[in-house]
Amino acid sequence: MEDIARGVRSFTIGTTVSRLLGLAREMVFAHLFGSSRSTDAFNAAFRIPNLLRDLFAETSLSAAFVPVLTEEKGKGKPRQNLLASNIINTLFLVVGLLTVLGMVFSRPVASLVAMGFSQIPDKLSLTASLTFITFPFLLFVSLAAWAMSYHNTEGSFFVPSVAPAFFNVFSIAVPLAMFGYYTARGGDPIFGAAIGVTVGGLMQFLIQVPGVFRRGYRYRFYLNWRDPQFRKVMALFIPVAIGLAGSRINVFVNTILVSYLAERSMTWLNYAYRIMHLPLGLFGMAVGTVALPRFSRLVLDDKPEELKIGLMDSLKMVFFLTVPSSVLIAFFSYPLTRLIYQRGQFLAADTAAVSQALILYVLGIPFISALRNVASVFYAHKDARAPMYASFASIALNIVMNLALMKPIGFLAFPLSASVASVVNIYLLLRWLPRKIGEISFSPVYRYFLKLSLASAGAGLAGYYGFKLLTPAFGPTFLPVLSLTLVCGTASLLIFYIGCRLLRIKEVDSYLRRFLRK
Predict the structure, then answer these.
(1) How many CB atoms are closer than 10 A to CB 493?
(2) How far is Cα 484 from Cα 490, in angstroms, rounded to an integer?
(3) Whole-angstrom Cα distance, residue 58 to residue 55?
(4) Which residue from 1, 56, 268, 473 has the highest number of Cβ atoms inside 10 Å of its Cβ?
């Protein structure tokens, strides 16, 4: 079976560039705007097209499009390109119309999503204006997801993984360039951030277009919703979209609930979520993205045993990448948050709040990452219903936990419930998986996960206490904290490796060789 490590490595290299630039974008945002009424309004406004983004882009589109496009690829390039043209024309029509409606009705949309802001009229008005500016991002990122799916079907993972870097570059450059313009005229410079994400979304699509044509795509003006292959895509897309609609409803409800909490709560959660997304995007999404087209081919070739082996390998690989990174981020949450954000308008109190939320968010990273791999098996079998049902169950739990916990622990209820819900989601899919691929024992994966967790916890504790012990000697300023974090983090990784050897986790050396092999 083809080694997925090569595709994961290619995806991770490209994503690393993008995610590091994403952190740079958040650093610039924190420096310029800190946490305030304006940042709450921006985060609420940008969340609106992001709520719809997952329905029409990335997860849903790739889960439905890649398996069918892989099937059409085997019938020849003209058949593959006809389906691809049908899909992109549909996106232009449907998502384009939705984008126009979102801009026209930006005020009622903002009033619905950020209901609690109505108590502060100028905050709601600002949210509506920012919603108008950011809504075109939805169309551009949907087109970018189409291009990513075409690339992935062709075995190309680097270009689509690095494309979000261009989004981040323009999300940094535009607000920096326009900050002085708005400030000099007495306007709110947060508008520069809104313009930046819209321009960035367009560039994320355009950078992938040349590569799509180099890989043989030829556009046709073809729109046929009765086409059998289009209907296959829709048969997958609709259940996936419904399942994701549930998760988007969950985010929608959470946004409403957070809008009633203390000011800056929404901003703190967003900053923590952005750091959490670094290991999730680098490692968790990488394995799932590469696994989907591979699993689709194995299903088409009727190789169930190879599929089981591939699934077990992908789960072990994703845990190898996400368990230690998540644990180390949890133990180093305060210095990491401080290094990334604490400057300009971002204060020490913001660091303390964000680092607490970050610890609770990263607990769910391994489970969210593994979920993507297990769901890929269902999607490869053109079954989107089981992931949909599991998603609904986890969403219900998430909302109930938030309602129960938001009063006693405030904004921390939201990352905690998200992590718990991700555990429930993957548990349900693993229980249902044998119905799809036959009997399979996950005991080796469970033991492997526990051993990784023990090695990671030992490494994290050692690094944490080392950092705490040496802090007085290094000092509290940026460069000493950065140096100490790097030293203790590197020592933690070494301790993790030693712990893995002591616990006889043989896969660690194997994965290191596979990732380093050309």
Answers:
(1) 15
(2) 10
(3) 8
(4) 268
Question: Model pTM?
Answer: 0.70
CB-based contact 94:55 (threshold 8 Å): no
Task: Sort 360 into a burial class: Cβ within 10 Å, 0-12 / 13-18 / 19+.
Answer: buried
Q: Token pair 């410079």 is at which residue?
A: 189
* pLDDT tier, 289 (very low <50, low <70, confident <90, very high otherwise): low
pLDDT score of 199 more than 90 = yes
The string over 75-103, giving b where at least 16 C-beta atoms fall within 10 Å of a residue's C-beta and e elsewhere, is eeeeebbbbbbbbbbbbeeebeebbeebe
Euclidean distance between CA atoms 16 and 162, whole angstroms: 8
Comparing CA positions, the residue from 345, 337, 192, 193 lying closest to residue 273 is 337
pLDDT in tens, 461-484: 999 999 999 888 877 778 888 899
DSSP summary character for residue 456: H
| DSSP-derived 3-state class of residue 261 | coil
Q: Check: CB of residue 266 under 8 Å from CB of residue 353.
A: no
- pLDDT, position 388: 81
State mean pLDDT over 82-103: 92
Q: How far is CA 233 from CA 61, 94, 361, 382, 514, in A?
A: 9, 15, 33, 9, 34
pLDDT band at 1, cuts 50/70/90? Answer: very low
**Does position 441 have pLDDT exceeding 60, yes or no?**
yes
* Termini Cα distance of the chain: 17
What proportion of the chain, given as a percentage, has pLDDT over 70? 90
Residue 236 confidence class, pLDDT cut points 50, 70, 90: confident
Tell me how far the alpha carbon of residue 348 is from its chain's centroid. Answer: 27
Contact (CB, 8 A) for 187 and 41: no
Residue appearing with tokens 């000697």:
473
Are the beta carbons of 168 and 21 closer than 8 angstroms?
yes
DSSP state of 2: -
Q: Using the structure block, give the residue that is written with the tokens 């690829």.
A: 73
Per-position b or e across 421-430, b if 16+ CB within 10 A of its CB: bbbbbbebbb
Asked whether the predicted pLDDT for residue 3 surpasses 60, the reply is no
Q: How many CB atoms lie within 10 A of CB 3?
A: 13
CB 308, CB 437: distance < 8 Å: yes
The letter for the amino acid at 437 is: I
DSSP letters, 182-232, are HHHTT--THHHHHHHHHHHHHHHHHTTHHHHHHTT--------TT-HHHHH
- Sequence-distant (6+) residues with CB within 8 A of 4 are 287, 290, 291, 294, 310, 313, 314, 317
Q: Distance between CA 293 and CA 296 in Å, rounded? A: 5
The pLDDT tens digits for 140-191 are: 999 998 998 888 888 777 787 788 888 989 999 999 999 989 988 888 999 9
